[in-house]
Amino acid sequence: MQLILWILYGVLILASGIYGSDFVGHSHWDYVIWIPPLDEIQTFQFWLDIVVNVTLYAPFAFLFLQYRNSTHRSALVTAVLLGLLLSCAVELYQVYSHNRRPSPLDIACNLSGTIIGTLLWKAWRRSARQTPQLKAPAIPIP
C-alpha cells in the first residue's frame, strides 16, 4: 500500500511540474533563471514558490521511507537521491517548454524538502519506538 501511495505522490509531483506546459523539440537554456533578480526576490510569489517547493517534496521522502521501512543509511540516501532525480527531471522538462521557467533554486528547494521529509520520518520512527506499548494481560479477561 505504501508503494502505491509513494508512486501516486510521485506522479502528482510530475503532473504539477508539467501541467499546462507546451513541450517543444528544442531547449530554452536562456530562460533558466540561474540567479533570481532582486525585484523578484522581494515578491510574495517568490517566497510562496519556495514554501510550496519545499512542502511538496517532504511527503515524497516520507512515503518512500514508509515503503522501505528501513533506518539504514542507504534507504535515507536513496530517498534523497530519488527526490533530487525527480526534481531535476521536472526542471529539465521545463527547459523544453515555452511557458515554464526552470530554476536551479527550485531544485535546491525540492532537495531541501526531500531532506526535511527524511528527517521528519527519522524523528517519527524514533518517537514511535519510544512510545510504550500496552502489554496484553497475563490472564485473559472474558
Automatic annotation (TrEMBL):
Coiled coil: none annotated. Keywords: Membrane, Transmembrane, Transmembrane helix. Residues 7-124 form the VanZ-like domain. The keyword Secreted does not apply. The chain crosses the membrane at residues 44-64, 76-96. This is VanZ-like domain-containing protein.
